[in-house]
Amino acid sequence: MTKPGSPQRRFGAATMALATAFAVVACGSDAGNSAAPAATGSHSAHAGGPSAPPQPLRAGERFVELKMPEAYTPAPPEGGGTDEYRCQVIDPGLTKAAFLTGTQVMPENVAIAHHAIVYAVPPRGVALVREHDAKTPGLGWQCFSGTDVKGADVEEDEPGAAWVDTWAPGAAETLFTQDVGHKLEPGSLLVLQMHYNLLATDGKPAGSDRTAVRLRLTDGTPQTRELVTWPLDAPTDLPCAADESGPLCDRAASIADVAKRFGPEVGGTADEQLEECGQSAPKPGDTQTCDHPVPAPMTLFAGFGHMHMLGRAIKVELNPGTPKAKVVLDVPQFDFDNQRLVKLPSPVEIGPGDTLRVTCTHDAGLRKLLPQLSKLPPRYVVWGDGTSDEMCAGIMTVSHRKS
After folding, report:
1. Quick check: 211 and 116 in contact, CB under 8 A?
2. Which residue(s) pair with 306 in the sheet?
3. N or C: which end of the chain has fewer CB within 10 A?
4. pLDDT tens across 292-310, in order?
5. What does the pLDDT read at residue 9?
6. pTM, full prediction
């Protein structure tokens, strides 16, 4: 699990722990490696169309289709802003163990769906989730930090929860040819975390949503390998453009604004990242990097690059600057509306002594070009849960191996 005393990084403030102690060190700004600005993608935040039809079932697989219990109309949090994170329970009704070999999240209201994460809660955590859901008024509960259920969250050793799927605009079901999958124990529950973006309506209600999730399940074999999600993050320290000014162009003021909108845990992420990266002070710039040592033998199968609307490019490299250097994820022209899991041409074996470096390039100049952002005041952009904030996450799909 996570190294004691070491804060964990988040995708949408969703923390994730592997089965070993992952330490995050040796990060920093890398302005010298800044990529040339890529052609602007749609970056609309909501240009996604309807979900693609399912790929055919393979031998031994079955579909289980689930929906949110009822439609939900999102509203911004009490701290202000235009983003809501809502968790809801969906029960796959498992009476025996199964492996999740494919997932398709299908938002009903794509105009407000920013991203979704699916968590698997093992049977020993089900009562905690049910109790939390029952005592929270309304449908589901607000959840900026993972499931936000004490004892049944992804940062918990026991009973914990596992991050098993990520959806963002453009994402489709990704199938592996290898005998692999996320293991679900009988009696497990799924928690669907939806990030709703109300930026286009200035935080006003923008209709309801009843997202569906289609699971591809198989009983597996003794040889089936269990998949684990490992997010590799880097700081975001993007200053205002040279021709911009305003109160939020101050880094401390911007962090305080993030904390007001999403709470102190999310607000503290920007400085926690610097500490985890061994960086004594922020290094403002368009491009940031972070080196993540590989703590245990594992196989790398795929990667998913996530940023927000100011994202230009994201890359994950294995052992950069060495004879063994290899690019394992490369999105040279990031498009918010076309985010998806990218399979490696063939799995890559990694282990202790290896390093994975994530590099992200953002562009403050995009703020004036995007209608949803152009009406907001300029800001020094740091890691935050809002669509007007930013992230840098290379979300890798791996499987542990014994040697």
Report:
1. yes
2. 393
3. C
4. 999 999 999 999 999 999 9
5. 37
6. 0.81
